[in-house]
């Protein structure tokens, strides 16, 4: 895997869903190149395909045409196992609904992606939870945490394997404005410090101005602002 190649390149990406005998072309030729350390915000109307694109970029949704290269290596022209491994080692994900496992504590949730890869991660998980301001919440279950705190745990979890690329799908969508703004401040601080590449889907136009580039998904293609 070439570390000098751009961390993320999408070439002529199409994604069509087939529903009830009809084709629904959502992505219709997306081209995108993201440089190391860049912060990209993806906007567009509801239903324009933002989440679909994020999932395609993150190896979670196979495009019907085109490909995504991560550090020059194809995500989709290889076995699913290789894709899963690339996802686990080079990418971290933050979702609107957090998706923490309810029966695990904050510390255990953060450790989980590393344990899946056979690594011990408790010390790093403690460090990350400290970084997101939750060193006093290690043993709390998700139900014992506020929405903003749960999202901070999810951010720490996304960072546990030290991925170069971080994807966030409406990370503030479930939070009030001030909590959401605090979560984004923290996310951007971590990303800037660690020089990670960030791709965020958001409806929030104010938030979208905080990236290096704002891209709009329109009629299945990306338009740069
Ligand atoms: N698995 C699926 N099967 C069929 N259609 C789907 C599927 N996933 C998404 N779609 C459709 O694809 C279109 C784009 O969905 P997507 O969730 O990517 O949009 P979005 O821009 O993220 O929307 P929102 O801002 O409302 O979250 C929508 O019309 C949706 O109904």
From TrEMBL:
The residues that cross the membrane are none
Q: Can the keyword ATP-binding be found in this entry's annotation?
A: yes
Keywords tagged on the record: ATP-binding, Nucleotide-binding, Transport
Checking Gene3D superfamilies in the record gives: P-loop containing nucleotide triphosphate hydrolases (3.40.50.300)
Tell me which SUPFAM superfamilies the record gives.
Answer: P-loop containing nucleoside triphosphate hydrolases
Per its record, what are the GO molecular function terms?
ATP binding; ATP hydrolysis activity; transmembrane transporter activity
Superkingdom of the organism of origin: Bacteria
Q: Which residues form the ABC transporter domain?
A: 8-225
> GO CC terms for this protein?
membrane protein complex; plasma membrane
SMART domains registered for this protein in UniProt: AAA
Extract the Pfam families matched here: ABC_tran
Q: Does the record's keyword annotation contain ATP-binding?
A: yes
What family does this belong to? Belongs to the ABC transporter superfamily. Macrolide exporter (TC 3.A.1.122) family.
Q: What is this protein called?
A: ABC transporter ATP-binding protein
**Source organism (scientific name):** Brevifollis gellanilyticus
């Amino acid at each position: 895997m070439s570390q000098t190649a751009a961390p993320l390149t999408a070439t002529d990406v199409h994604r069509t869903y087939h529903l009830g005998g009809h084709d629904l072309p959502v992505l219709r030729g997306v081209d995108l190149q993201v440089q190391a350390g860049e912060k990209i915000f993806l906007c567009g109307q509801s239903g324009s395909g933002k989440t679909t694109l994020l999932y395609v970029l993150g190896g979670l949704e196979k495009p019907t045409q085109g490909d995504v290269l991560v550090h020059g290596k194809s995500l989709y022209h290889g076995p699913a196992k290789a894709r899963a491994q690339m996802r686990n080692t080079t990418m971290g994900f933050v979702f609107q609904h957090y998706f923490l496992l309810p029966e695990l504590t904050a510390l255990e949730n953060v450790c989980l992606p590393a344990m899946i890869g056979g690594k011990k991660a408790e010390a790093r998980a403690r460090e990350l939870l400290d970084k997101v301001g939750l060193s006093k919440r290690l043993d709390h279950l998700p139900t014992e945490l506020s929405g903003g705190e749960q999202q901070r745990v999810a951010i720490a979890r996304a960072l546990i394997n030290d991925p170069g690329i971080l994807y966030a799908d409406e990370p503030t969508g479930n939070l009030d404005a001030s909590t959401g703004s605090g979560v984004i401040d923290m996310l951007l601080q971590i990303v800037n410090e660690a020089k990670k590449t960030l791709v965020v889907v958001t409806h929030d136009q104010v938030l979208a101005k905080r990236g290096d580039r704002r891209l709009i998904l329109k009629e299945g293609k990306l338009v740069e602002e």
